[in-house]
């Protein structure tokens, strides 16, 4: 199995620092299924290529599985573990090798080039043999900023037609860490098989590698199902946790026809993200607001719903992350808005812990799954900025209910790695009461999502109403 990463950034040999591998050496690593080699066939100032070559040992692959076979695995027949495409076609084996040999690079760490870690570089990824289709490869990688070329590999001339494999090339300007995390998740998704038993800890691996992009990916349902080997409970738990981070989430309808092999049935009930969004929309409608702020808008999920309702004459989304605003701009197709609609939706970069005069004078503001991303000592600054300075007539706030977390299979700790805290119902009630009293608001509390008798609902919602506007 072969995978190459190429850059034309100058000096291109900086790629070695980012991958923490010296371009003049061949690096070899034992992995449970064989030996992984990292080498640099091209290492010049204007172009540098790093190659990951995985030499699969069928006997070690069999031993690594420990006799536990998944029903979806292609080697489920007697000799399948020895006679299959795994020594040749990139799959979860390559993803596992990536995780081991490029561990620091995946985490975005480089002691020699720390300033370059967060810099997008011109990159080209080449995977010569990969099971999948051109259409699926495009659906998976294109939304992440890659230009995708997936050429079908033809069968032997006497057979005619194309095989089920593609020669994949990706080109784009991304950070090396982002590129490697995309590959780590999506290679096994394209292959639609795992070479090892999928346990609950795979959820954490998926969410860690998918941080910042998976929640907003239009194919997040398909990706989650396939990555977790179609295990119903794990996929459902992972999707609930992804839905819990609407700051980066854009929900799309589930397309079952696009994943004909999926064993996980499409849920008939609404996702938590949809329920939360509908609760926020209902609160805004009840308030009579026409000019609305979505503070911490992330990928623009709520804005997309607001646009469809003509009662909202002005919609402003703000986020501290330029990357999130770029995603929202792309998802909302703001560059293709009709002339008569231009100016109705605006995106601003703004930090909620600083006073911003542009936010004053609006009818309503929404903080949907935002406050838990702030360090607790910064909350008073947010309160002063939103409730004290901007002072919209209505403020709608949602946040996770920490008590409900025990009901999520495989969840340890908080629902998202970027959450700084998650409050119980009593803690949220205390914060809302203090904030309302300090800034002249009344507040009512509601729950969103399925109700558990002991633990309440997964999401907490507060509606603040400015007293002089009541």
From TrEMBL:
Domain Methyltransferase type span(s) in chain numbering: 293-383
Domain spans labelled Hen1 N-terminal: 1-242
GO molecular function: metal ion binding; RNA binding; small RNA 2'-O-methyltransferase activity
Keyword Methyltransferase: yes
Domain of life per record: Bacteria
Pfam families named in the record: Hen1_L, Methyltransf_12
EC number: 2.1.1.386
Reaction equation(s) it catalyzes: small RNA 3'-end nucleotide + S-adenosyl-L-methionine = small RNA 3'-end 2'-O-methylnucleotide + S-adenosyl-L-homocysteine + H(+)
GO biological process, one term: RNA methylation
Keywords recorded for this protein, A-Z: Magnesium, Metal-binding, Methyltransferase, RNA-binding, RNA-mediated gene silencing, S-adenosyl-L-methionine, Transferase
Annotated signal sequence range: none
Needed co-factor(s): Mg(2+)
UniProt cross-references to InterPro entries, sorted A to Z: 3'-RNA_MeTfrase_Hen1_bac (IPR024026), Hen1 (IPR026610), Hen1_N (IPR024740), Hen1_N_sf (IPR038546), Methyltransf_12 (IPR013217), SAM-dependent_MTases_sf (IPR029063)
Recorded family membership: Belongs to the methyltransferase superfamily. HEN1 family.
Family annotation (NCBIfam families): bacter_Hen1
Record-given protein name: Small RNA 2'-O-methyltransferase
